[in-house]
Amino acid sequence: MYSLLLAIIYAAFISLGLPDSLLGSAWPVMHEALGVPVSGAGMITMIISAGTIVSSLFSDRLTRRFGAGRVTAVSVLMTAAALFGFSVSGKFWMLCLWAVPYGLGAGAVDAALNNFVALYYSSRDMSWLHCFWGLGTIISPYIMSHSLQAGLGWQNGYRTVSFLQLGLTAILICSLPVWRKVQRTKRPAADDPAGKAVPAEGSGMREESGVPEENARPLTLMQVLRLDGVWLVLISFFCYCALEQTAMLWASSYLVQFRGIEASVAARFASMFCIGITVGRFFCGFISDRLGDKQMIRLGTGIALLGIVLVALPARADQIPLAGLIVIGLGCAPIYPCIIHATPERFGRGNSQAVIGIQMACAYVGTTLMPPLFGVLSSVLGIGLFAWYLLFFTLLMLFVSERLNRKLLRRDATAAGDGPERRKS
To answer: What are the transmembrane regions (predicted)?
Structure first.
């Protein structure tokens, strides 16, 4: 039963990744057909990001009221409708309109699925979950490429992905009893075998089991922000997403303009950064349960720092910065899923959906604002700033992550000191 539901969740995360790279692969054709400048894609992505931020912040309230299964099914249906809307849009303003339900659906399903896997499955399963997201981002450009080469137009590419999403929606609706059965059994995650939690005031968590009640009162934003260490994990998550998206967007430009590498070679190796993340998450699944989330985050950060050093080295050989991009991708692989999976253990199982929702919102803020900020800075200071920009966010992420570890260690030590033995004495 658990394996069947996990397979469905994996399929849902593939579908979550499918639209993420669809716009970029189709936009060179779309903007000409719609008669808008290349920069118009930025407007669409900002609307989508705004929707994901809003729905992520409301994910705790939605999931407690309707359950993770129903939220996921409805969210995937919303993205399917939005993608179909893209396929029949003949004007730019129509794309902007359909971007609203697309963003709302994507944010809700992202937060709901991440929390569900963090609660009921292992760190290995979380790594592979995000590996399947990467698989979706790799598949969709091929769908769009086939549509364009066959003369079917970019509309057919969006329509195809929309139909795939509709098929998944049907599967999710049929699987709703399985979601409820898994939640009723209250199966704890592998990294948190006792299902323990530190309840926040008004969190609506059953203290005897550490499992959140779906219909319990949701946490307010201020309640979540008052949880010990939440600000540190939010900064850490923000830094990671700034690192990942800046590398993804600007790597090719850096290689061409600063390193003098041929554009076709630079584009190929820039895509290797994404493949490095996907492949890295697959292999991380084999060791994450053994090492634990904390050590995996440290390991990934260290590898990413090594990759940034390789990119920054003033070497004449083109292979060194190219290899550095792949190494950065491998280092990024475990960080995102392990931060998510550690949330129930760090902040309590009853609080995890609210915390993960805000983490998702911070992630989207980082991915929306930080890559354009680098574009502004590079226009003044030069594209050579690329490696130093990545280094800043990676070091800041490492600093706040270690500070969070120390803070939670002191909290746990204090809680252990106030246990039954101490109270008896």
So the answer is: 34-59, 71-93, 99-121, 128-148, 160-179, 230-253, 265-284, 296-314, 320-342, 354-374, 380-401
Q: Is the pLDDT of residue 422 over 60?
A: no
| Alpha carbon distance 72, 54 (integer Å) | 16
Please spell the DSSP secondary structure of 261-281, one letter per residue.
Answer: --HHHHHHHHHHHHHHHHHHH
H helices present in 35-122, as ranges: 40-57, 59-66, 68-87, 92-120
108 closest CA partner among 143, 150, 57, 158 = 57
Tokens representing 337? Answer: 């899923």
Q: How many CB atoms lie within 10 A of CB 364?
A: 26
Identify the CA nearest to 298 among candidates 236, 386, 390, 230.
236
Q: Give the residue from 293, 265, 307, 324 showing the smallest Cα distance to 394.
A: 307
**What are the pLDDT digits (tens) for 396-408?**
999 999 999 998 8
Give 330's contacts (C-beta < 8 A, 6+ positions apart).
Answer: 276, 277, 279, 280, 303, 307
Give the amino acid at 363: A
pLDDT 10s digits, 22-69: 777 777 788 888 888 766 777 888 888 888 888 888 888 888 888 888
Tell me the C-alpha distance between 333 and 274, whole Å.
9
